[in-house]
Design brief:
With about 200 residues, this protein is an all-alpha fold. It is about 70% helix and about 5% strand. The protein is built from ten helices and two strands; from the N terminus they run E-H-H-H-H-H-H-H-H-H-E-H. It has a two-stranded antiparallel sheet. It starts with 9 loop residues before the first strand and ends in an 8-residue tail after the last helix.
């Protein structure tokens, strides 16, 4: 039986390495957010208990969050997708204008990644770096004066809330598009979907 990416009418969207990076990052992010909830929400804290263990899980899942990304740099396909995510063109501005107007009938040109996905990826990368930096200041208390640690705690806590909201939105968008979800799960998507949602994407490039 041929793999999904080789079946007629389907095109490869993500390699096995890219899917591993996504799943590993998602798992670490989920563990990090869940452990944060157990630390900051009293009902969850009382239910779970073992605060020292939860703190340890939270710290290490946060420190390891960039690990899949760094390991993924060995993948040619992943590096190529990073370059795509980092490039904005005129068609991205057109996509954003149509999205902001919530006009379902306006043309939304997109390459392999649309403008919304590019903005999400850029924001997420920056947020993870800030969370990692503030988390290190909170963990290693001797690295900085008290005022820095207090500021780091403030930024860390509020950015964690923003991350939870943004990730919930990301999951919501994925649930609303079964074919996009299938592409991340199996590595391939229907050609018709690709041509409709990402008309500027050269399949297989």
């Amino acid at each position: 039986m041929r793999p999904p990416s080789e079946r007629p009418g389907r095109v490869r969207r993500f390699t096995a390495a890219e899917r591993w990076i996504h799943r590993s990052t998602a798992t670490l992010a989920l563990v990090c957010l869940a452990s944060a909830g157990c630390l900051y929400l009293p009902p969850l804290a009382e239910l779970v208990g073992r605060r020292r263990l939860v703190v340890t899980v939270h710290e290490w899942s946060g420190l390891l969050l960039p690990a899949p990304f760094l390991a993924g740099l060995a993948s040619v396909a992943f590096r190529a997708d990073l370059r795509r995510l980092g490039r904005f063109g005129p068609h991205d501005k057109q996509w954003l204008r149509a999205a902001l107007r919530r006009d379902r009938w306006s043309r939304r040109p997109a390459g392999k990644f649309n403008a919304g996905q590019k903005l999400y990826a850029g924001w997420l990368a920056g947020a993870v770096l800030v969370m990692l930096g503030t988390g290190v200041l909170m963990w290693f208390t001797g690295l900085a004066p008290l005022v820095w640690r207090t500021s780091a705690t403030f930024v860390h806590d509020w950015l964690a809330l923003a991350l939870a909201v943004v990730l919930a939105g990301h999951v919501g968008k994925a649930l609303a598009d079964p074919e996009a979800r299938r592409g991340m799960r199996t590595g391939s998507v229907e050609r018709q979907w690709a041509e409709r949602e990402h008309p500027l994407w050269r399949h297989g490039d």
